[in-house]
Write a structure and sequence with these properties.
Residues 333-352, 1034-1071 are annotated as: Disordered. The protein is mostly beta strands and 1405 residues long. The chain is built from 14 helices and 99 strands.
Length: 1405
């Protein structure tokens, strides 16, 4: 951007602090522009440093951010800013800042600006890439600006071997201020291995005024990051893998190790744990996502029942200095198993198996650095805990006393130690309550029963298996204890009788089994029974050996065996007192709806059910909204992005995402057509989302692209679903999309794929040249292709081999749904194609159609033609060299049908028309033109190529000759001419040859000389326009001839024709002239010399013969011209008097003539005698007395002046021009000065102020008025009278003269008032006549409109809004109540005469 200086790649490295950069260049700083550059100060030492600036400001620059000392910890850096004020381009400076550390180190930062004397082309931008981590690809942009006003081409040259690519390498800069005056150069650096890159980019400019070489230095230091894990047991030994050994499920183990950064730069390390295939997916290709989709489906399947990951690492991201170490902790915590999956084991149970875990720890440096994969190994098993006995029966214990029973806890594992803790209750407690059991050992327990209340008691003493650090419970197993508290003691002999009586009273064997005290011999048998792991708690199975028990216990044992597998018996035994009561209520079952659900109702009812734990539905966006959505990159590119997308989404996060629409309906789609629909995904989260469409199972969506996007936080992404089905089908499929590589959801796609079909307006086309009415060499027909399907159809025409003369447009195209497209089929047979009938065919190929192709039959008819020329030879005779000679030939059709011909191109002959149709029996005129630049005899042919007929030829003969032009005078000597006087010499040019001649006369370099052609030297009967014309003028600097092409208008006055003379009037610049002379004609010109200053003239006048507008070599006639200008003896104030247009008065009327004065002054120191001759018009018949001069004679002393009055009295409507000669000192043979007098006569007339009187548009019954000014031009006194149209009903207008009807010399102009009013709508244009007292009539066009339409009266309503009242009468439409008002249009002339007030008074009165 403007204002950023170029940073030098030089840096200053010090053991304690480092500053980058140390040289700042501000040479490219524009005028009135302020720059701000950033520098970086870093503490590279091992101790904290205090950094300060010795001087933070100077005359031109200022250092910001270091006004006070700052503290930098080791490795930290501080960004400072250096600002430069606005300076002119010619200002240069060199300043520096000193940055100091507390250990005495100092670094100087140099700021410079060189003087720029002039801007041409500037290269802005730094190419210092700094430190990079390879392999990498980085880019920087520089700007090339052109400050000149000319385009500047440029080219880029790279100096040195560098992995650099510059785009573009060449181009052109536009002028300053244009859009192309600035060009951005993108410099891309691609580094693959560690190296130090140094080089230059040279921009070579080559322009109209710019030749310069601009240089920009490139610098970069490429390094690679290297990570190495160290063994925690031996810090100097590399770590190859981590083995956590065997743990209990639910237990955890932490291992700490270090990672060493062996590179020379700071690295950002990302750590993650996972399965090996998870990291293999990270290296997938962006184009081939089949492996990723399969892995995602596998992860999604495992995620439904997955436990927390067994391995975690912390920290997940950290920064490691160059050569530094990072300490990481890996935690192995296998998920705990449910308590139901394992129970208390007896001596006959098999020990549980070990579950191995094989994971990988990935350590990756940010950027393209080293990635370290560290294997993680571990195993887990459930605790092997045995409780003997598992059931403790204390029997009857009197209140206030206690009873104790022994128990054992055994560790059946031979590898892991068990740590346990036993929960205590109010009546039962155990000693010891916690402890540890070595592998294969057991520990005794003593359970004490101390009853607190009367009655039977049963509970569980939970034995918790703890983690290795005794902080959490990983396993729980119960010890079942029962007892009976009684007020008196019960001996053991009475226990059996009491139990039997209790069983009869309750009538529930299950309650007795849960609370009855078993006999000691039954309890001994029960302790050896293992607990079944597949049943619930308190469900026991007794072996057949218990059948041998005593008769007193048979009932109890049979009840236990009968109910050993029923959950209801166990629940009643445990919670007999809390069992639910049956209230006799019945479940209500409502009747189903009487009608079946439609497909739309079913989708609406089931839409809410599908939104549970999945993204929300999103409505379809419009085309404009979709165009505004950008496409994002295909996959993550940074480690931070990978870390975000590798984490599954929670339920709340999933429900906040919007994907839709859920049902994508393509509608009716053409077979093999490409139909597109869009879905959008909204990411409201604060992290990236990786969305992948699983199109691998849907070949119809193979053209969908992109199928993967990384959506930024808070962004909306779009996916374009492209359907291309090559089979006719009803397409209903589910499209799966994957979120973050592990969670899969689906969208429903629907489409009806149908074949395409097009209809034709005709299946046979006839092409007949005899029926065509054009002269073109082809015949064409229109064919309409209709599409009656609701989808677009692509088609293509295929012409057979025999249809090479036919063409069709368009050759291919697309017909929209329910629309049609015209096709233009043209037959262009070759010239040699014989007459008769020609057949061909073409087929219509429709994309996606089924069945045979449609075929069109083409039939062309070409009748035989026969035309010829009416004459055999066209003799043009003598033709001048270079002249365009024209002639005409007649072509006649003598055949039986219309004929079409084309003229064969010729090198010297041009024919018009070059192509035409000649009807049967008709004739056609053919214009033939020829122009030859070399004299020679021409004998050639005009050939006609006749369609379906024989060629016709006409011989053309001509003799091209070079015209011979002669100039009678040998030289032109003007002699001595006074300054201000004009002298003329005759120039006689003769063309004795038999052809016309054209020549140029060059006077462009001599403005004092010009040519004039007298009116009597040529006639309009011979020439269409003036033979003499100006072809170039020095005033315009033009060197190209521009001949006049318009014919001059002539007026005839008493048998004499007067034309506008070329070269007349005063010209301050010289001109070149072109003269055309007919064969054997003589042209007399006048060479006019007007002396303007005191000097001598001598030059050669060239007469160059022309051919085709160009001079012919060796055809130049030269004549010498000499003249000498002397000091003028008599000075005239004006030598040209122009009266313009004056009114012609009748001879009977006495009127004063028009006069103009001029002065004649003596310019010599002696007496001059003047004699003014008669005007030249006095010698013409009928023009005598038109111009008069007074006085005719005068005597002037030195410096005296005399005023001469010239009068003009025209007698006819014509133009007059005369020369008034002035003679000195009695020399009447030669005039000293000629005064030119011009004037034009005009008959008296009246002139109106406007061409047409347009009255304002008004409503009905409203008066409209306008004032038209009448101007007098030539009448003395005239009485005016207005004549209205005869049809007063259809043109109701009135005319009056507010100031009277007399006009004349006293009243130059007169107002005319036109009034119009109507009660019915009408609009008309008519003419009124103003007649004078002398019978002269002058018409005036008048237009008026009256209407009741608001649209027509819009202008009237806007201008009279304050005067209008809107009313409505009952049973009538609304109307306008107009106050008394009239419209009046006053012209500017009347207002200028101050009559506005009078007119307004007359109108309102």
């Amino acid at each position: 951007m403007p204002g950023l200086p170029s940073l030098s790649p030089e840096t200053a490295t010090h053991p304690s602090i480092r500053v980058v950069p140390t040289c700042l260049e501000f040479s490219h700083l524009a005028h009135q522009e302020q720059a701000c550059v950033k520098i970086c100060v870093q503490n590279t030492g091992k101790h904290t440093r205090h950094v300060r600036a010795r001087r933070s400001s100077s005359a031109f620059c200022r250092l910001l951010g270091l006004e006070s000392p700052i503290c930098l910890a080791p490795g930290l850096q501080k960004v400072l800013q250096v600002t430069c004020q606005q300076l002119p381009e010619t200002q240069a400076f060199r300043e520096s800042f000193i940055i100091c550390a507390d250990d005495g180190d100092e670094i100087e930062v140099l700021c410079t600006k060189t003087c720029q004397t002039g801007k041409s082309v500037m290269l802005e931008g730094s190419l210092d890439f700094g430190d990079l981590t390879g392999p990498t690809k980085v880019s920087k942009v520089t700007r090339l600006t052109n400050f000149t006003q000319h385009p500047v081409p440029f080219s880029v040259v790279l100096e040195g071997r560098m992995p650099v690519l510059v785009t573009p390498m060449s181009g052109e800069l536009g002028p300053a201020g244009s859009d192309s005056s600035t060009q951005k150069l993108q410099v891309e650096l691609r580094a693959t291995f560690p190296e130090s890159i140094q080089g230059q980019v040279k921009v070579v400019t080559e322009g109209a005024d710019v030749h310069d070489v601009l240089i920009s230095d490139i610098a970069a230091q490429v390094t690679t990051s290297s990570l190495e894990a160290m063994d925690p047991a031996s810090p100097s030994k590399p770590l190859k893998r981590l083995d956590f050994g065997l743990l209990h499920h639910g237990d955890s183990k932490v291992v700490t190790f270090q990672v060493v950064n062996s590179s020379n730069m700071t690295a950002v390390v990302h750590a993650a744990c996972g399965l090996p295939q998870d990291f293999n997916d990270a290296d997938r290709s962006a184009k081939d996502l089949s492996g990723f989709v399969q892995a995602a489906r596998r992860r999604a399947k495992l995620l439904k029942a997955a436990a927390p990951p067994p391995f975690t690492i912390a920290p997940a991201q950290a920064q490691v200095k160059a050569g530094g170490r990072l300490e990481l902790q890996v935690t192995f915590q296998p998920a705990s198993k449910d308590s139901e999956s394992s129970g208390v084991r007896g001596s006959t149970a098999a020990p549980p198996s070990e579950e191995p875990f094989g994971y990988v720890c990935q350590l990756r440096a940010e950027g393209p650095g080293t990635t370290l994969m560290l294997p993680l190994r571990g195993a887990a098993r459930i605790p092997c805990l045995s409780i003997k006995p598992r059931l403790l029966q204390f029997g009857a214990v009197p209140m206030g006393t206690s009873s104790e029973l022994p128990c054992r806890l055994a560790n059946d594992s031979d590898k892991l130690m068990l740590r346990y803790s036993i929960a205590q209750t109010a009546s039962f407690h155990c000693k010891p309550a916690h402890g540890a059991i070595l592998p294969g050992a057991e520990t005794p327990l003593l359970v004490t029963y101390n009853p607190k209340a009367l009655g039977p008691q049963q509970t569980q003493l939970e034995v918790h298996v703890l983690t290795s650090n005794s902080t959490a419970v990983v396993w729980t197993r119960p010890i079942l204890v029962t007892g009976l508290a009684d007020a008196q003691a019960i001996n053991p002999a009475e226990q059996h009788a009491q139990a039997k009586s209790l069983g009869k009273l309750q009538g529930s064997p299950s309650w007795a089994a849960g609370n009855f005290l078993m006999l000691p011999e039954v309890q001994a048998q029960f302790n050896d029974i293992p607990m079944d792991e597949q049943h619930q708690q308190h469900t026991w199975t007794l072996p057949c050996a218990l059948k041998k028990a005593e008769h007193t216990n048979k009932r109890i044992v049979s009840d236990l065996r009968r109910n050993r597998s029923t959950h209801q018996t166990t629940a009643r035994a445990v919670n007999e007192l809390n069992k639910p009561q049956d209230l006799g209520l019945w479940r209500m079952r409502p009747k189903s709806p009487g009608c079946a659900l439609t497909r739309q109702m079913e989708q609406e009812l089931t839409a809410g059910l599908s939104q549970v734990n999945q993204p929300r539905s999103r409505a379809l966006l419009g085309p404009e909204a979709l165009d505004a959505i950008a496409l994002y990159k295909v996959q993550p590119s940074t480690d931070c992005e990978w870390a975000e997308v590798n984490k599954p989404l929670s339920k709340q996060e999933l429900e906040s995402i919007a994907v839709g629409p859920r049902h994508v309906d393509f509608g009716r789609v053409r077979l093999s057509a490409i139909e597109a629909r869009h879905i959008t995904v909204f990411n409201p989260l604060r992290r990236h989302l990786h969305i992948v469409l699983a199109t691998d199972r849907l070949p119809e969506l193979s053209l969908t692209e992109p199928v993967s996007q990384l959506i930024p936080p808070g962004a909306v992404a779009k996916f374009k679903l492209v359907l291309n089905a090559d089979e006719e089908q009803s397409f209903v499929e589910d499209l799966e999309y994957i979120i973050n590589g592990s969670q899969i959801f689906s969208l429903q796609l629907r489409a009806d794929v149908e074949p395409a079909s097009l209809q034709l307006s005709a299946h046979e086309l006839d092409f007949d040249f005899g029926e065509a009415d054009s002269a073109q060499p082809w015949v064409q027909k229109n064919l309409v292709v209709r599409n009656e399907e609701p989808f677009s159809c692509n088609f293509r025409w295929t012409l057979r081999e025999e249809a090479s003369a036919w063409t069709v447009e368009p050759q291919e195209g697309c017909v929209g749904p329910n629309s049609s497209l015209p096709a233009l089929i043209r037959w262009t047979p070759l010239t040699e194609t014989p007459p008769g009938e020609h057949l061909a065919s073409m087929t219509l190929d429709v994309e996606g159609a089924v069945g045979d192709k449609k075929m069109i039959t083409l039939r062309g008819v070409r009748p035989e033609s026969n035309i010829c020329f009416c004459q055999k030879v066209l003799d043009l005779g003598a033709v001048p060299v270079g002249a365009l000679q024209k002639a005409m030939a007649v072509i006649r059709n003598i055949g039986q049908s219309d004929a079409i011909f084309e003229v064969v191109p010729h090198d010297i002959l041009m024919c018009t028309p070059d192509r035409a149709r000649v009807p049967k029996g008709a004739s056609l005129s053919l214009d033939i033109a020829m122009s030859v630049m070399v004299p020679r005899a021409i004998s050639t042919f005009v050939a006609l190529d006749v369609h379906a007929g024989k060629a016709a030829k006409l011989m053309v003969k001509a003799d091209v000759v070079l015209p011979a032009v002669e100039v009678a005078e040998a030289s032109y000597e003007f002699g001595e001419v006074s300054i201000g006087a004009t002298t003329k010499l005759p120039v006689t040019v003769t063309n004795p040859s038999a052809v016309s001649a054209a020549l140029t006369i060059g006077l462009a370099m001599h403005p004092q000389f010009k040519l004039e052609l007298p009116r009597d030297s040529w006639s309009m009967d011979d020439y269409d326009e003036s033979p003499l014309s100006v072809i170039s003028a020095a005033a315009t600097g033009s060197a190209t001839a521009s001949r006049r092409t318009s014919r001059s208008r002539t007026r005839e006055t008493r048998g004499t024709r007067s034309t506008r003379q070329t070269g007349e009037g005063d010209s301050s610049e010289g001109s070149n002239y072109m003269l055309r002379i007919l064969p054997r004609k003589v042209m007399k010109l006048l060479l006019v010399f007007k002396a303007a200053k005191n000097s001598e003239y001598s030059f050669m006048l060239d007469f160059k013969l022309l051919g085709a507008g160009q001079s012919i070599e060796d055809a130049v006639i030269t004549r010498s011209v000499t003249a000498k200008a002397l000091r003028a003896q008599l000075l005239a104030s004006n030598v040209v008097v122009n009266f313009a247009t004056c009114v012609v008065h009748a001879r009977s009327q006495a009127s004063e003539p028009h006069t103009q004065d001029l002065s004649l002054t003596s310019n010599v120191n002696r007496q001059l005698t003047l004699h003014i001759g008669a005007p030249s018009t006095d010698k013409q018949d009928g023009a005598r007395g038109v111009f008069t001069v007074e006085p005719r004679e005068a005597v002037l002393d030195a410096g005296d002046s005399v005023f001469v009055t010239i009068s003009f009295a025209p007698i006819e409507h014509m133009r007059y021009s005369a020369i008034v000669p002035v003679f000195l000192d009695g020399n009447l043979a030669k005039s000293y000065l000629d005064i030119r007098v011009d004037g034009e006569g005009q008959d008296p007339s009246l002139r109106f102020g406007v061409r047409e009187c347009i009255l304002p548009t008004v409503p009905l019954n409203v008066k409209s008025q306008a004032v038209v000014e009448i101007f007098n031009e030539g009448f003395d006194n005239l009485e005016l009278q207005a004549h209205l149209p005869a049809d007063a009903v259809h043109c109701p207008i009135e005319v009056s003269f507010p100031e009277g009807n007399l006009i004349g010399t006293a009243s130059y102009q007169l107002p005319l008032l036109v009034t119009f009013i109507s009660d019915v709508p009408m609009s008309f244009s008519t003419s009124i006549a103003i007649e004078g007292s002398d019978g002269s009539r002058f018409p005036l066009l008048v237009s008026a409109t009256a209407d009741a339409s608001l649209l027509t009266l819009q202008t009237f309503i806007e201008m009279n809004s304050q005067k209008l009242v809107w009313t409505r009468q009952p049973a009538q439409a609304p109307g306008i109540n107009v106050r008394p008002v009239s419209w009046c249009c006053l012209s500017r002339g009347w207002l200028a005469l101050g009559l506005k007030q009078a007119a307004l008074q007359s109108l309102t009165g």
